[in-house]
Design brief:
The protein is an alpha+beta fold. The protein has a single domain, classed as Ribosomal Protein S5, domain 2. Helices cover about 40% and strands about 20% of the residues. It contains 3 helices and 4 strands. The chain starts with 14 loop residues before the first helix and ends with a helix.
């Protein structure tokens, strides 16, 4: 695979990984999304996604949103510092079109990269 794959090494997999970020996070916030980041010991950024059923009711909407978030992360990965990132979905996230979500994420990745340097 190319450099834009989403392997296990760049994912947050366990509740312990998520707790590590939640305990002392640097936020990047919008009305529909919150990105939380914390420095990691690795050499690359890692991503975790939480979109609650309470916030986005339909499974196909949650899956679509996760796909777009992962794709956006793959494109921005080279510009991000070595941080663990958790993306938290809020109410109204499913109302965004794919393009609106992609541009919102690009803005939030840049804001997060500036704050984490």
């Amino acid at each position: 695979m190319g450099e834009n794959h989403f392997s296990r090494e760049i994912r947050l997999l366990t509740p312990t990984h998520f707790e590590y970020v939640f305990n002392n996070a640097i936020p990047s916030v919008s009305p529909q999304l919150t990105l939380l980041a914390r420095k990691n010991d690795g050499s690359a950024p890692r991503l975790g996604i939480t979109i609650a059923k309470k916030r986005v009711k339909l499974a196909h909407d949650r899956n679509r949103l996760k796909r777009i978030i992962r794709e956006s992360f793959r494109h921005q990965r080279q510009t991000l510092p070595s941080v663990d990132i958790v993306v938290v979905g809020k109410s109204g996230l499913d109302k965004l079109s794919n393009q609106e979500l992609f541009s919102l994420l690009n803005k939030l990745w840049k804001k997060l990269a500036q704050r984490c340097v």
